[in-house]
Design brief:
Layout (H helix, E strand, L loop, with lengths): L1 H14 L5 H5 L6 E11 L9 E11 L13 E11 L12 E16 L5 E16 L2 E18 L3 E17 L2 H7 L3 H4 E16 L6 E13 L7 E14 L1 E17 L9 E12 L1
Antiparallel strand pairs: 1-2, 1-12, 2-3, 3-4, 4-5, 5-6, 6-7, 7-8, 8-9, 9-10, 10-11, 11-12
């Protein structure tokens, strides 16, 4: 509860930071950025879970940036590579490496639009996400998605951006095997799995025009139903909330984030709810 109260306090404080409108408007918007971040994660349902803490460095290329909108017949690449080092590794695996890495690449190209008073854009959408040792009990995971996105911006004084993505996806997951093998008696035949399914994501962003502060909420689901071994399935649900606030201009951003990641299988792999809770704060600088 202290974590949640502290996060709420940070969010309220960030939303109240004043930013000069003229400084925001005059900012040059390049796509390359570096960020430093600090965060923690834990399994709330497990008595044996450590509160894993650490810090990281990200290299970012973002054609859209945080508060722009998609334009018809333009290509948008959004990529992020993160190196993360944990101060306190979790308790499930004494030999677990403290180093971890994430790679995320998104491509989107709007190719059609509809709507008279409100424009809606339809885009080709592709993404890849790879995680190596980056979450407790997750040794390796990757997800590749190909599909369509629907985007629109509703604006008066402030901006509300809506995004919907639906696609076919390939997922591969390799769970850390020490705890499931020793405590639950599972082998690699169920701990390592790969298959196909559908991916859906609903994203929301509300930006205050005068201050540049943005509130975000995103829900996504991968439902792995096909090409798995007989009787197996795999689902991943993610719920993410965030606050982005400019520091003097749009090239210097402070980002607060909280996330739940919930996984489900045809059997109990770890002896408790496979739901990971994460909070983080990040400073981003665009060049």
């Amino acid at each position: 509860m202290n974590i949640k109260r502290n996060l709420v306090t940070l969010v309220v404080a960030a939303a109240c930071l004043p930013v000069a409108t003229q400084a925001l408007a005059n900012t040059q918007q390049g796509p390359f950025a570096l960020s430093v971040l600090a965060g923690l994660e834990s399994y709330p349902d497990s008595e044996s879970s450590a509160m894993s803490r650490g810090g990281g460095l990200s290299f970012i290329w973002d054609d859209l940036r945080y508060n722009n909108t998609y334009q018809l017949d333009k290509n948008y690449f959004r990529a992020r590579g993160t190196y993360y080092y944990e101060r306190d590794s979790e308790m499930y695996d004494e030999d677990r490496y403290r180093d971890s890495a994430d790679l995320k690449i998104n491509y989107q190209r709007p190719f059609a639009s509809f709507g008279d008073t409100q424009e809606y854009l339809i885009s080709f959408h592709g993404r890849y996400e790879g995680h190596y040792n980056s979450q407790q009990l997750e040794e390796f995971e990757q997800l590749a998605v190909a599909g369509l996105s629907l985007n629109s911006r509703f604006t008066d004084t402030n901006h509300y951006d809506l995004g919907l993505t639906l696609g076919l996806a390939y997922s591969e997951e390799e769970k850390d095997d020490d705890w499931p093998r020793e405590e639950m008696g599972h082998g690699e035949d169920v701990l390592n799995r790969a298959g196909l399914g559908y991916f859906v994501e609903w994203s929301n962003a509300y930006t205050f025009a005068h201050s540049g502060v943005q509130l975000t909420a995103k829900v996504s689901r991968f439902d792995g139903l096909w090409a798995y071994d007989e009787g197996q399935f795999y689902t991943v649900d993610r719920l993410t909330f965030g606050v982005v606030t400019p520091l003097a201009d749009e090239n210097n951003l402070l980002h607060f984030m909280t996330q739940y990641i919930s996984r489900d299988y045809e059997l109990d792999l770890i002896g408790f709810d496979d739901t990971l809770y994460r909070v983080a704060v990040e400073y981003i600088h665009y060049f």
